[in-house]
Amino acid sequence: MGRGRHAGYDDQREAILAGAARLFAGHGYSATSMNQVAQACGLSKATLYHYYRDKYALLFSIADSHVERLQRIVVETAQADGEPRERMHLLIRRFVQEYADAQDAHWVLTSEVRFLEPADRQRVLDRERAVVAEFAKVIAGLRPDLDEATLAKPLTMLLFGMVNWMFTWMKPEGALDYEAMAPIVTDLFLGGLQAVQAPQPALAQNRQLSRG
């Protein structure tokens, strides 16, 4: 009978993916070696190969697992009770939260997926399309006329344009964090500039103090 995986096996795999994503995002997939990944993760090269057979396996796992998490969010939201407006609030909040903790993986997904083999790249793209389709369904539920005008998907991509790249300009020490930005993005998307509500100063100050 074969030996089973130890209790921390999955946690170690996730830690390796996080370390590899950080290196790929900072230096590029092509310029990063397995030796660098092993060093960054505090592992021997032999131990690293026990979890991932090569650098390509790391790249695919980073991209695929990141999109799989996004896909799971839209599926769970679609199954939740509530009107389309409520689901849109929930979708945006959960995506912003996910991106806050997965900036490196998201960078890899958007910039390094070109190095994947065609079949693997197609798998990732199919997952991305499923995510876009679920967002478009919510927009169509809010505005059926826009769906009839084939605008639901373009509007979804405009929304992603706000959310996907937030990490490129958000500063960890800034007055606003991801939790505060989520409702702002929702208000701007659903109601335009006149609908945006400024975060309460007390809440923003408390967040600053909590980081100290």
For CATH, the homologous superfamily of the largest domain is named as Tetracycline Repressor, domain 2
Shape category: globular
The helix content is over 70%
* Structural class by SSE content: mainly alpha
**Sheet having the most strands:** none
Question: Which band does the percent of strand residues land in?
Answer: under 5%
Provide an overview of this structure:
- The chain is mainly alpha-helical.
- It folds into two domains: 9-169, Tetracycline Repressor, domain 2 (Orthogonal Bundle); 170-212, no CATH class.
- Helices cover 72% and strands 0% of the residues.
- It is globular and about 55 Å long.
Short description:
The chain is an all-alpha fold. 72% of the residues lie in helices and 0% in strands.
Characteristics:
single chain; 212 residues; mainly alpha; Tetracycline Repressor, domain 2; 2 domains; 0% strand; globular
List the helices and strands and how they pair.
Elements: H1 9-27, H2 34-41, H3 45-51, H4 55-79, H5 84-100, H6 103-111, H7 118-142, H8 144-148, H9 152-164, H10 178-191, H11 201-211
